[in-house]
Amino acid sequence: xxxxxxxxxxxxxxxxxxxxxxxxxxxxxxxxxxxxxxxxxxxxxxxxxxxxxxxxxxxxxxxxxxxxxxxxxxxxxxxxxxxxxxxxxxxxxxxxxxxxxxxxxxxxxxxxxxxxxxxxxxxxxxxxxxxxxxxxxxxxxxxxxxxxxxxxxxxxxxxxxxxxxxxxxxxxxxxxxxxxxxxxxxxxxxxxxxxxxxxxxxxxxxxxxxxxxxxxxxxxxxxxxxxxxxxxxxxxxxxxxxxxxxxxxxxxxxxxxxxxxxxxxxxxxxxxxxxxxxxxxxxxxxxxxxxxxxxxxxxxxxxxxxxxxxxxxxxxxxxxxxxxxxxxxxxxxxxxxx
Length: 338
Ligand SMILES: C[S@@+](CC[C@H](N)C(=O)[O-])C[C@H]1O[C@@H](n2cnc3c(N)ncnc32)[C@H](O)[C@@H]1O
Hints:
By secondary structure, this protein is α/β, with parallel strands linked by helices. It has eleven helices and 16 strands. It folds into two domains: 2-162, 2-Layer Sandwich (VC0802-like), CATH 3.30.2130; 173-336, Vaccinia Virus protein VP39 (Rossmann fold). The chain has a seven-stranded mixed beta sheet with strand order 2-3-1-4-9-8-6. A seven-stranded mixed beta sheet has the order 12-11-10-13-14-16-15, sandwiched between helices. Helix 8 crosses helix 9 (200-207). The mean pLDDT is 91. Bound molecules: S-adenosylmethionine (SAM). S-adenosylmethionine binds next to helix 9.
């Protein structure tokens, strides 16, 4: 069995457990709180690395929540003198990957472990032929200490630079994936993101399980560049449309909507309450019976008013309080009644 530690956005504990239960049949969750889940499974790291629901995932070599053994000085001296540590990395790398050693602790100055890091890297290079790349390694060995835990692990998720795209308002892929998970993906889904922007939500939906159709609409369709990456065939049907005209394109056929609409923070002249009211009028026109709408916004009170106003047509199934780029936001999972 392998131990993994994955990090995810605040509030998604239950959703994360659902994802892991589906992926790992032999799953044992040891800890799941405060945006991190520690779990044991036989599933190989390659499968865990493909889960876009996490901000980062680590294959663990050592983990501790005890004050004496979570300390970074302790973890480094344990690693240097421990055969298991080097064997673990050798097995993982198998001469193919480039690595670097990274450390972080609130209790030590930045360069405190520089020498020991160099010694570890040197040993990995000399004895096992592992390539050390300090600029753009394929993976990292992390020595991390936080207030209530410390760990040594190999990052199995993609490098951070892979996740950064040039579209500035793009929703983080982990949040987008968790919103999609909340929409209960099915083969029969006729899925729509009416504010698709960069296209991250519809693009990920096509990768997270079978579907019937996936539509992306936005008033500025040029921003949907993410969906047509080089060499990648897109299954998303893109339509340029203002949200007020959605009913011109769809007639009660949409079974799932997952979206990140404007929050009214950037657009100065926008009456956000009127905007959301019109949006729900459109949802009534284009959604099939029992359709699901998953929507993220910082406008929590306004959304509650809108739901109250539309209570004959929609009801709230779940509400998750989270954070996006340091801003409080809530995720609403809403079901159409009829
Ligand atoms: C918060 S951004 C969505 C970002 C998107 N989730 C992403 O990750 O790239 C809101 C989007 O709503 C679109 N939008 C704003 N007003 C609109 C309108 N009246 N009709 C359709 N789209 C609109 C903007 O063009 C923008 O792409």
